[in-house]
Specification:
Largest sheet: 2 strands, parallel
Radius of gyration: 59 Å
Distance between the termini: 148 Å
Order of helices and strands: HHHHEHEHHHHHHHHHHHHHH
Shape: rod-shaped
Strand content: under 5%
Strand order of the largest sheet: 1-2
Length: 444
């Protein structure tokens, strides 16, 4: 359209200029008039052209504005986004500066408090132990060729509940270090009860707690009949024969190089000190000494096969190896304390009253809660009554003594009544009724 308007304008302009020239040539007018006519013709010719040019420029401007309008809008949006981003960057930088300042303050605070004695003085045992073991684990491999340290913990079931929990926490702490292996020998029932007592508001079932500490639980088997007999044999067989024991007892005190007997030392010195009220006796001369109590006869130190066989039959009464050892130790003390005038009645080759001592000791060791009731029944029984009828008053006791009964020759209550006071002295219960008479007629 622009091209058409230009062509139309040029044609009009040429026509008008030609007409003005013709008129100026054929008319007789002054040059000034001719010039004005020509100028008027040119102006008239250029007026449509100028109008068209203006319109063309207007169209061009509108087209340009139409093309630039989206770009301008995008530019406005971009500038707004840029300004928003700049504001956000400024805010972030301000926040970062604040965080850096807070972090510096926090680190300064923590370092100051960590080095303060306020906290170090309040560290618990577990924290101190952990710190020490961490140091030990770091240093030990550098100075010694040690792959593992095995720690054995025993008798934990003899500790109070709070101490049990402390030890369990320490064990759990040690297991965090690869260097340590912990072996704990304990009655698990005591552990569970201790945890219930300590965490009574938090813990209902302690098994899950213990499983986090003990990776490999292992329950020992109950003591068998064979194991009980082997244990009795181990603690009753003497390494020396009766003849060797007699020669040892008769050998007397060792002589000094000068031929005089050596002054009392060791157990004899203790006996001397006790006899004088705690002060050592003043020597009467170079060879003076206080005579010690005579040792028991050799046969009192040797347990016979008959006694050992009867002890074997108490396996149904004695529940644990510890109880078996207690049984044997008490029996040894009883038999060496038998007065000389009663030894024949006690011995297997004589009256055999050792049988009453063994049976009553088995009841004392194996039937703790029933001991007082059973011993009361024995004391109240007539001498000629059947001891098995007396013992039948305690539920389950005859069945536990069934194997013993076949090895006994004493079935009357009389010898058992005589031995109740002696045996009861080895109980933790204060059986005042069983006090041994001062004259020793029925006891030691």
């Amino acid at each position: 359209m622009l091209h058409r308007r230009l062509r139309l304008t040029l044609v009009t302009l040429a026509t008008l200029v030609g007409a003005a020239v013709v008129m100026a040539a054929v008319t007789n007018v002054s040059p000034l008039a001719k010039g004005l006519a020509i100028a008027a013709a040119v102006a008239a010719a250029f007026t449509p052209a100028l109008d068209g040019a203006l319109r063309v420029l207007s169209l061009v401007r509108e087209a340009r504005e139409a093309r630039e309008r989206p770009l301008a809008e995008k530019l406005v949006r971009a500038r707004a986004s840029e300004e928003a981003a700049e504001r956000e960057v400024a805010e972030r930088e301000e926040q970062l500066a604040q965080l850096r300042d807070d972090d510096l303050q926090l680190r300064t605070f923590l370092r100051g408090r960590a080095s303060s004695s306020d906290y170090r003085g309040q560290l618990g045992v577990i924290s101190i132990v952990r710190r020490d073991f961490e140091r030990l684990v770091a240093l030990l491999p550098q100075v010694a060729d040690v792959d593992r340290i095995v720690l054995f913990i025993d008798d934990l079931d003899r500790c109070p509940h709070a101490k049990v929990v402390d030890v369990l926490q320490a064990v759990h702490l040690l297991l965090a270090f690869e260097l340590f292996v912990v072996v704990v020998g304990v009655d698990s029932r005591w552990l569970k009860q201790s945890l219930k007592e300590h965490y009574h508001d938090l813990l209902e079932e302690p098994d899950s707690y213990l499983e986090k500490i003990f990776q490999i639980p292992y329950a020992l088997r109950p003591m068998t009949r064979t194991g009980f007999r082997d244990l009795v044999d181990q603690h009753t067989r003497s390494p020396k024969s009766a003849g060797d024991l007699k020669s040892t007892v008769d050998s007397g005190p060792a002589a000094t190089p000068g031929g005089a007997p050596d002054a009392g030392t060791g157990a004899e010195a203790v006996a001397d000190q006790a006899a004088t009220g705690g002060a050592a006796p003043a020597p009467a001369g170079p060879t003076a000494r206080v005579p010690a109590a005579p040792p028991p006869p050799p046969e009192a130190l040797v347990i016979s096969d008959a006694e050992r066989r009867l002890l074997h039959e108490l396996d149904a009464l004695v529940p644990t190896p510890r109880a078996a050892k207690r049984l044997v130790n008490i029996y040894r003390m009883l038999r060496v304390s038998v007065p000389e005038e009663e030894r024949y009645d006690f011995a297997p080759e004589g009256g055999g009253e050792y049988q009453a001592a063994v049976v009553l000791l088995g009841i004392l060791v194996g039937r703790g809660p029933d001991v007082e009731r059973t011993f009361e029944a024995v004391l109240d029984a007539p001498d000629d009554s059947d001891i098995w009828e007396v013992l039948a008053a305690t539920p389950g006791l005859p069945e536990q003594l069934a194997a013993v009964r076949g090895h006994l020759t004493l079935h009357r209550a009389a010898p058992y009544r005589r031995w109740v006071p002696r045996v009861s002295r080895f109980s933790l219960r204060p059986f005042t009724r069983y006090a041994v008479p001062a004259d020793g007629a029925s006891g030691q």
